């Protein structure tokens, strides 16, 4: 654990323009503390209006210091949680909750960006429906279901025994079109995707073996074999491929079939 310090927004600053309010955890004294400073006195010393938690184990729960400051500062809804987190932190922490501070504005901007990018089902990507739909069709994925979620919907696709789930966010104040969320789920595995090329590569993975014969490719194999073997050799090669693993083709009588085919297809 380590020391923490949280700067709060004072109340009635027009009456006390120099007021500063702090709350936090003192590791050495093992206590939460609350302090209100109202400028300096004539001797240049800090004018300490509130000083709670200045002795060993004085305040051991956040509510004790929060209550002491309600008349002096704005108490945010998450202040108790912030105090609890700061108490267990292994490094010193400083949090500024005054809206006029640069640190506060930076933290608010960061939080705003995170809220814009993050949804319960993942992070919003740059990919729209127009980016994703052609890739799904190109790689043989067919829609098999849709399910509404809190901030959008998820869609399920299948390709043979494979299953793919993609989450989407509805258009909102941040985005005027549906956006794909990352990660996507492919056969039970999560994959972070943000670019079209990444998605295309992932969707192509596990596609049918290009060596599997189609009617067109079988015809091409037949042509190649015809050019390599003589008729007798090709027929022997054909019988060799058609013979089961436990059968001998050496003693088979010559085939009466004058046609030639690869025997690799039906």
From TrEMBL:
Residues 234-243 have a biased composition (Basic and acidic residues). It comes from Amycolatopsis albidoflavus. Residues 244-257 have a biased composition (Acidic residues). The lineage of its organism: Bacteria, Bacillati, Actinomycetota, Actinomycetes, Pseudonocardiales. This is Uncharacterized protein. Residues 204-266 are annotated as: Disordered.
């Amino acid at each position: 654990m380590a020391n923490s310090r949280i700067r709060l927004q004072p109340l009635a600053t027009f009456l006390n323009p120099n007021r500063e309010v702090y709350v936090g955890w003192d590791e050495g004294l093992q206590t939460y503390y609350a302090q209100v400073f109202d400028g300096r006195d004539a001797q240049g010393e800090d004018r300490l209006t509130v000083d709670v938690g200045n002795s060993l184990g004085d305040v051991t729960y956040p509510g004790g210091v929060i209550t002491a400051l309600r008349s002096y500062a704005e108490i945010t809804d998450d202040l108790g949680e912030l105090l609890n987190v700061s108490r267990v932190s292994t490094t010193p922490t400083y949090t500024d909750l005054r809206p006029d501070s640069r640190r506060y504005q930076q933290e608010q901007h960061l939080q705003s960006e995170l809220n814009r990018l993050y949804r319960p089902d993942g992070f919003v990507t740059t990919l729209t429906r127009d980016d994703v739909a052609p890739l799904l069709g190109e790689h043989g994925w067919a829609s098999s279901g849709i399910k509404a979620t809190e901030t959008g919907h998820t869609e399920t696709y299948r390709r043979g025994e494979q299953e793919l789930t993609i989450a989407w966010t509805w258009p909102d104040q941040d985005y005027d079109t549906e956006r794909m969320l990352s990660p996507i789920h492919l056969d039970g595995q999560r994959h972070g995707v943000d670019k079209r090329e990444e998605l295309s590569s992932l969707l192509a993975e596990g596609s049918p073996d290009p060596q599997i014969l189609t009617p067109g490719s079988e015809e091409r194999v037949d042509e190649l074999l015809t050019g390599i073997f003589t008729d007798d050799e090709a027929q022997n090669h054909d019988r060799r491929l058609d013979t089961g693993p436990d059968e001998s083709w050496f003693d088979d009588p010559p085939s009466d079939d004058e046609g030639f085919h690869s025997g690799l297809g039906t």
